[in-house]
Amino acid sequence: MDLYCVMGNPIEHSRSPWIHARFAELTGQALRYERRLVPMDGFDAAVSAFRADTSGTARGCNITVPFKFDSARLAQHVTPRATLAQAVNVLSFRKDGMHGDNTDGIGLVNDIQRNADVALAGCDVLLIGAGGGSAGVLGPILEAGARRVVVANRTLAKAIVLVQRHAVLALQHHASLEAQALHTIGGAFDVVVNATASSLAGGEVPVAASVLKRGTLAVDMMYGPSAAGFMAWARAHGAVPRDGLGMLVEQAAEAFEIWRGVRPPAAQVLAELRALVG
Ligand code: NDP
């Protein structure tokens, strides 16, 4: 049986195994999908061990926090969008080596535009965080036509590097792109995306409520109980809160299509997952 997994640390909260099992069921694909906890200093060894797993034929894996930069380094062939992100969340094991791609960005954009019905064209977007998740979504947000994108991060230097790497893309799409520290963000935004791990760690929302205005779409990439604090904060300040469940399903649908060549019904699986997690 073809074997896939999601690797990360922590990993217990991941809904990816459920999503991919459901995709497989609905598209008639025979595969097994597991979750694997990876020691913080053991990413390369964990990938090797998975590839050598004899309980099935390892075909690929999803990579989540905090190993997306490590997987970009490990892959022998990397798509242009993952090269720009320098972060890989999908590895495919093929005859000529490991192929890396990044489906986080298209997953977020599809969720915002198709599922939340908000067009990004002409929007002012605040992207909080400069880790693997943020790096994956910045390019697709620019390509979707955002008018202005501010990347804010606790460690400002990382936001600056991310912005510099996307400067040409921003120019090509006539977008204004800048890096700011968390406490110096000016003005309110149409769309706010929390791509920090602060929710995962149970921390406070890392920016002031002045970044929100009535009707702002406020997306936390996190989902489940961990996203509750951000969602309540957004709602309390007149914004429209959205968790990361839609992004999770949409990025998984892209990965499934890369691996299996079949498009799974993402909207149906998202509705089922919402009903399951409440
Ligand atoms: P990384 O570890 O690569 O980056 C973490 C980011 O969070 C960094 O910008 C870091 O800032 C910031 N951060 C961590 N703790 C705090 C804090 N207490 N206050 C402010 N900023 C903080 O993680 P990823 O980017 O891969 O993932 C980030 C989140 O997005 C995770 O919760 C992950 O589960 C989620 N995610 C969800 C997806 C989905 O499909 N729904 C897809 C991708 C990610 P600094 O640089 O200063 O350390």
Task: Provide a quick synopsis of the model.
The chain has 278 residues and is an alpha/beta fold. It is built from eleven helices and twelve strands. The model has no long low-confidence stretch (mean pLDDT 96).
Low-confidence stretches: none
Using the coordinates shown, work out and report the CATH topology of the largest domain.
Rossmann fold
- H/E topology pattern: EHEHEHEHEEHEHEHHEEEHEHH
Bound molecules: NADPH dihydro-nicotinamide-adenine-dinucleotide phosphate
Q: Helix/strand/pairing class, anyone?
A: alpha/beta
Number of helices: 11
Number of domains: 2
Largest sheet geometry = 6 strands, mixed
CATH class of the largest domain: Alpha Beta
CATH architectural category of the largest domain: 3-Layer(aba) Sandwich
Question: What is the overall silhouette?
Answer: globular
Radius of gyration: 18 Å
Helix content: 25-40%
Termini separation (Å)? 32 Å
Annotation, overall tally of beta strands: 12
Structure report:
The relative contact order is 0.14. This protein has 278 residues and is an alpha/beta fold. It has helices at 16-27, 43-51, 68-74, 80-85, 104-115, 132-143, 156-165, 167-172, 228-236, 245-260, 266-277; strands at 2-8, 31-37, 57-63, 77-78, 90-94, 97-101, 124-128, 148-153, 176-181, 191-194, 217-220, 240-242. α6 links the parallel β7 (124-128) and β8. The longest helix is centred in the C-terminal third of the chain and has 16 residues, at 245-260. The protein has 11 helices and 12 strands. A 6-stranded mixed beta sheet has the order 2-1-3-5-6-4, with helices on both faces. Strands 9-8-7-10-11-12 form a 6-stranded parallel beta sheet, with helices on both faces. It has 2 domains: 2-102 and 246-277, Rossmann fold, CATH 3.40.50; 105-243, NAD(P)-binding Rossmann-like Domain (Rossmann fold), CATH 3.40.50.720. Residues 65-66, 68, 104, 107, 129-134, 153-155, 158, 195-201, 203, 206, 221-223, 244, 247-248, 251 line the site of NADPH dihydro-nicotinamide-adenine-dinucleotide phosphate.
